[in-house]
Amino acid sequence: MTQTTHNARNQNDSLLRFMTCGSVDDGKSTLIGRLLFDTKTILADTLTQITKTSKKRGMEAVDLSLLTDGLQAEREQGITIDVAYRYFSTGTRKYIIADAPGHEQYTRNMVTAASTANLAIILIDARKGVLTQTRRHSYLAHLVGIQHILVAVNKMDLMNYNENTYNEICADYLTFANEIGLAQSRSGANKDIRFIPMSALNGDMLVDRLENMPWYKGETLLEMLEKAPAAHTEQNEEFRFPVQFVCRPHASADADLHDFRGFMGRIESGDIAVGDSVTVLPNGYQSKVKAIQIGDAQLLNAQTEQSVTLLLEDEIDTSRGDMIVKTGSKIEPVKQIEAFVCWLSETPMSPARTYIIRHTTRESKAKIGTIAYKVDVNTMQQQATVDLKMNDIARVSFKLAQPLMLDSYTQNRAIGAFIVIDESTNNTVGAGMIV
């Protein structure tokens, strides 16, 4: 086998995960449909189907929102309920779009969509301006660490493409953003907030500029998306490798594999190279990387989002749930954590119950320590509470039975996130972000 280098980051730079959010009827689904239509990524049979459905409803033009409203209840009510994921690509990069619901009762769905997004498009109806739901979705995007906010002032055609209307909405949004600290992340870094006027229905400023807003000199939506940074490219994230499986092929007929001991998993952040010194947590054993493999290929180095097998120079006690980091990395096993938690279950959180925290490949039983406060996502005010109900977001402390290896969510979204599981039903009941 020959050794090769493999740069996963270069491959992943072309992928952008983004979400659309905003108030009900702001045009999120129409925007995505128009984007897919104008980039010519709709299959012919799909276009035929939605054309027929549009005609049945008495519409003269094709209702592009039908491309994302996949549930029957969504089509009947004309609203988005579940998170709809769509995929498309241009000549330069690939995209994964999440269409998040606008209703307050679906806050948990939006948090789910936002957890993997690197950019958020927040739509504002030009007729209505900045609304409570606009503020709520902006706050949630801020909470889950999305660094790039694109404020799309939609339905400009209904305001005769008036420049003053657009400027007033931009000023109102910036005032609100500064009030809640949206212009900065919790780590203190400046966020990228940009504005664009558009008409998703007619296609103004999505892919084509058209001629209705000559006063707007900025980029189109697609041009902004093409230039947006991908995940893992803006922060110098440290190497984190949760062990998923310890490979010991004892039954193999190949004598060379009798002593094989490989640690298999996915690199959640950072990079690693043959010869690097590593530490295995929580035990603290140290060794060096002897080899890196993907299947039969031998690599000299590997990076974020690659699933690899690591071989170490020393025989050390390592099992599923352990984490391999570079020696000297500032991460320690902890048995108490502080986190913002979004409660996903219809059954309220109870401090009297025991839950399971699942973090990367490791689990630990946990008890609620304290609930410092919950956040009213409409007013951004902190409120005292003794439990959490579905869609509540609160700052909570947990006491753990087993140690976990954590980074704060602002430093590392992959290692700073976890889910809460009901140990009796095995249902996922909460999603957390380490403070």
Strand runs, count: 23
Helical proportion, percent range: 10-25%
> Strand fraction band?
25-35%
> What is the tally of helical segments?
8
The separation of the N and C termini measures 44 Å
Counted up, domains total 3
Mean pLDDT: 86
Strand order of the largest sheet: 8-9-15-12-11-16
Largest sheet: 6 strands, antiparallel, barrel
CATH homology-level superfamily of the largest domain = P-loop containing nucleotide triphosphate hydrolases
Radius of gyration (CA) equals 24 Å
The unreliable regions are 5-11, 71-81
Helices and strands in order, then pairings?
Elements: E1 3-4, H1 8-12, E2 15-22, H2 28-38, H3 44-56, H4 72-77, E3 84-89, E4 94-99, H5 107-114, E5 119-125, H6 132-143, E6 148-154, H7 163-179, E7 192-197, H8 221-227, E8 240-247, E9 262-266, E10 271-273, E11 277-281, E12 285-294, E13 297-299, E14 301-303, E15 307-312, E16 323-326, E17 333-343, E18 354-359, E19 362-376, E20 381-383, E21 393-405, E22 417-422, E23 428-434
Parallel strand pairs: 1-13, 2-4, 2-5, 5-6, 6-7
Antiparallel strand pairs: 3-4, 8-9, 8-16, 9-15, 10-14, 11-12, 11-16, 12-13, 12-15, 17-21, 17-23, 18-19, 18-22, 19-20, 19-21, 22-23
